[in-house]
Specification:
binds 5'-deoxyadenosine; Glutamate mutase, C-terminal domain; single chain; alpha/beta
Length: 484
């Protein structure tokens, strides 16, 4: 199949589907027409797209945790706890690492070991191994919509099983679940895998079932300049809509400077709408997702609550439709259900307190927005130019050329030349532009802001600043200032 942004042809989809559904025995449980009928029976309160549309209209920010364990009843108990004791508005099912790597045999081993030891030996819920009926039990056990959250380069079978299983939202995308997660998978391959997933969602849509899709916004974490993650989000939005997706949540990971974070939340949906329109796609439902701090956390739980709260503030003031919540156990690993619910309650308290407040549209906020818009457009226009109008082809070439370059990504298909660093106010700027297609004015802006920090700290901007920034929050600060 030649790479193109165009909708997959039905024959190619059918051919792949045979292959996908026979990769593990539970694939046989998928009966598309029956799955459509099942999805149609779900009450509106359990349909993510419907709930997000409601939230957007009311201007509220919903809180959603991450959560997943190996066994079905324990997973259900966990989700119920997060709903009832944490007040989660939306629920996740986080998938384990074996499933993310399509290693279903090893996931099976993890399930059996968990049964015999009596606690979860997987870092998530192995939805493919458990199969369609188990997914339905999960969905039927709670009162709110449930989303699949993972990190899978090839999620075709996972999507088939979980969507037939009644999940109404599927996270991920061809770039966002490749470049930050895999070392050796070509972007061209993941674009094709995710076109399958998006086409599947398109087929549900054409049969009257709306499934929400959510590209993974934060990429590698907290030092990703907003224009880079926005460019990836818009590309994945275009790729999804081209396959028939009609409901999208676009994500952004907290950088830590409030003005920049709010500017990023304001500009993300505008850019997606702009490029969808420019490329002739129909209007779709777009909501935003804000990720609380995706970098290293302080070990001290009291300090962790501070980090969590600051994320809740940015989500509320930026009017994100949804916030993905961290827990006080973040520095340690997978949280207990109590810690997870505590993160939710902290977040919801802040969201409720800020519900009716907005950040004034100051000159500074307008400037941040302008810079993000300009930078993202320069990247996206170059992607389209490289692809001769085709966003899929352009994306592959843009990664080769370093026109899109994700800092700190493990993928060998990412050039990895750019270096971000914070300015003196904690906003994420660019220290080394690598091959980003930015003009003089943008470069001067970043350099000037970083130089100001250098003066404040009495040192020349250098790689050391980047290192200091990576560890700063864990040590109790946002900007990695030298000691003394
Ligand atoms: N349960 C709860 N949180 C999880 N994360 C990953 N797997 C799980 C799970 N099974 C969280 C990590 C990190 C984020 C990327 O996902 O703790 O915060």
């Amino acid at each position: 199949m030649e790479l193109s942004v165009k909708q997959m042809d039905p024959e190619e989809f059918g051919r792949q589907r045979q292959e996908v559904l026979t990769a593990w025995p539970t694939g046989k449980e998928v009966d598309f027409d029956e799955a459509v009928a099942y999805q149609k029976e779900l009450p509106a309160a359990k349909v993510m797209a419907a709930k997000l549309a409601q939230g957007k209209a009311k201007g509220v920010t919903y809180a959603q945790p991450r959560a997943g364990v190996a066994l079905i009843s324990e997973h259900i108990e966990l989700l119920r706890y997060l709903q009832d004791e944490g007040g989660a508005d939306l629920l996740p099912t986080t998938i384990d690492s074996y499933t993310r790597q399509n290693r279903y045999k090893e996931a099976q081993g993890g399930i059996e070991e968990s049964r015999s030891i009596g606690r979860s030996m997987l870092n998530g819920f192995p939805a493919v191994n458990h199969g369609v009926m188990a997914c339905r039990r999960v969905v039927e056990s709670v009162g709110v919509p449930v989303q699949v959250r993972h990190g899978t380069p090839d999620a075709r079978l996972l999507a088939e099983v979980t969507l037939a299983g009644g999940f109404t939202d599927f996270e991920g995308g061809s770039i966002s679940y490749n470049i930050p997660y895999a070392k050796d998978v070509p972007v061209e391959n993941t674009i094709k895998y995710w076109q399958y997933v998006d086409r599947l969602v398109g087929l549900y849509e054409e049969n009257g079932v709306r499934i929400n899709r959510e590209p993974f916004g934060p990429l590698t974490g907290t030092l990703v300049p907003p224009s880079i993650s926005h460019a990836v989000g818009v590309i994945e939005a275009v790729l999804a809509v081209a396959q028939g997706v009609k409901s999208l949540s676009l994500g952004y990971g907290q950088c830590g400077n409030l003005i920049q974070d709010v500017a990023a939340l304001h500009t993300l949906p505008l850019l997606a709408q702009e490029y969808l329109k420019k490329l002739g796609y129909p209007e779709v439902m777009i909501t935003t997702v804000f990720h609380q701090w995706m970098g290293g956390f302080p070990q001290d739980e009291a300090k962790a609550y501070g980090v969590i709260s600051w994320g809740a503030v940015a989500a509320a003031l930026g009017k994100a439709t949804k916030v993905i919540v961290k827990t006080p156990h973040e520095a340690l690993g997978i949280p207990t259900k109590e810690a997870n619910a505590a993160g939710l309650r902290t977040t919801k308290q802040v969201l409720n307190m800020l519900r009716d407040q907005t950040l004034p549209q100051t000159e500074e906020l307008t400037l941040e927005e302008k810079m993000i818009l300009r930078e993202t457009r320069l990247i996206l226009d170059k992607v389209l130019e490289l692809g001769e109008g085709d966003m899929a082809v352009g994306s592959v070439r843009a990664f080769q050329a370093g026109v899109i370059d994700v800092p700190f990504a493990p993928s060998r298909f990412n050039v990895g030349k750019i270096l971000p660093a914070r300015d003196t106010t904690g906003a994420v700027r660019i220290l080394d532009f690598g091959c980003l297609p930015f003009d003089r004015e943008i470069r001067d802006f970043h350099q000037e802001r970083i130089a100001r920090r250098g003066r404040d700290e009495g040192r020349d901007p250098s790689f050391q600043m980047v290192i200091d920034d990576i560890y700063a929050i864990g040590k109790g600060m946002l900007v990695g200032r030298p000691r003394g």
